[in-house]
Amino acid sequence: MRQVHRAPWAEFPDVILHTNGAKLKAHASYAAAKAGDPASALQVAEALIRPDKVNLDFDVIVPVIQTDAAKHNALPRAAAFILAIKLNRQALLNTYQTNEVSHTKADAAIRILAQPHFAGVVEPGLRVLLLDDVVTFGSTIANLRGWLEHCGAHVVGCTSLASGFASTKLVPPADLLDRLDERHPNHAELAHTFGFKQSCWTNREARFLLERSDDQFQGLITAARTLYPSRETLINPETQPRQGRGPTLESPGRGRPDERPPDPPQR
Amino acid sequence: MDPIEEMKRLEKEIGVRDLTPEEIQAMFDKNKEVEELVRQRYPEYFAATTDQKG
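ok -> structure tokens follow
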């Protein structure tokens, strides 16, 4: 059974930025670093990492290790090492994303559905600082954090070279979740389909969901059920309602609002 | 449609897929590439704290 691991946000701090997107992308070595060149990635990290901005106490830095369009972005790895060297900490590179999501060109609906999954081990009890090159929707950070917390580590924060617009606040404010409860009471069903609690949406995810029409929202639930089928569906598919060739993003099928969603992850 | 087939069809539509073992190995190879270069440039970091940061 595939499942997205997420942990309740609690008092998770805002993402610590080292620069802005324009300066990052203007660096002469940026493109080569994103394409996987280690020397270029070190040049970018050495130029832009600001250790003085990191005011959290932690043991290790865990960078986002993923592929996008079959390329191995070397920036998070290099930035993790540079920050670790500057702060005399350890960089851990043994946790990795197990699927390719192609977030770089994905629209918001696809970002909701195409959740990153992680694997790899970390020593329980370690205090972890996450690091990515750019934070946008926050799904990758939320899922990496969830995986590491599931493994017994404690993620104290996240740092990023740059971020998308209004993306540093990963935790959705309470009034936003209240409005989401009111606008789409079944958003819990969508979250449970992925495997986490409805309070674990990121700020940007919650804002995106709030703006969906009823049909769009139902389409997301139906598509999510297809991507994250329940154990019952896999064991006995004949018990599920027929949906023709299944949901598509353009013409989503109808879900079953009376179905009990799967239990949230056990921590 | 079989739920697994339907899942694969939608994954293809939205552009998400599980990595192959070879692709995961390639990620670790990239880790080693970056680490090796860091070791060359910052030998004192690894030399001073090999036990902790190895």
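Helices of chain B lie at 3-14, 21-41, 43-48, 50-53.
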